[in-house]
Amino acid sequence: MTRDPAAAPGDDPLAERVVASEVVYRGKYMVFHVDTIERADGSRGQRDLVAHPGAVAVLAVDGEGRVLLVRQWRVAAGRALLEIPAGTLDVHDGVTEDPDAAARRELEEETGHRAGSWRKLATFWTAPGFASELMHLYLATGLTAVADDSRLAPDDDEELELHYLPLEEALALVEGGAIADAKSILGLLWLDRLRGSGGS
Question: Which pTM was predicted?
């Protein structure tokens, strides 16, 4: 029997119901917890989960067709990674930032640019096996540089290098493994697809 892969959780025989949850650590943005789940057949199990407010990623393309990328150190990877601009949604007084606003903020903070045209391309789960992070991917064009005295600055703990790469060069870095960040790989391949279909 073929089942709808997008069925609502209540109608899905694979659905797992959370019957207990223990918070083991609260970080700046994330909450780490262990959930006890119950399956449709009544059996139970445990899931280690990270609750995350969500994030944005931006494919920023300038007038020469170059993609703006940022290089920064990633402790989890043990090296600097070349990535598309991105960041976590802010949460203030329990209210999560609108992704459209966050995308504009992150582009300016990380690259010093604003965009005249915005297009939301997709949303996707970054690591659904253990994290609730939902990422919103945008295309930003019509870029203009922001004067340093009026620019939104990167976070205090961020050290970034800005790089402008033709899409073909960025794609070659993806294929060669030099760009190894999932959101950046997905975004750049999506941009290439848009270019091929005339939709960029």
Answer: 0.89
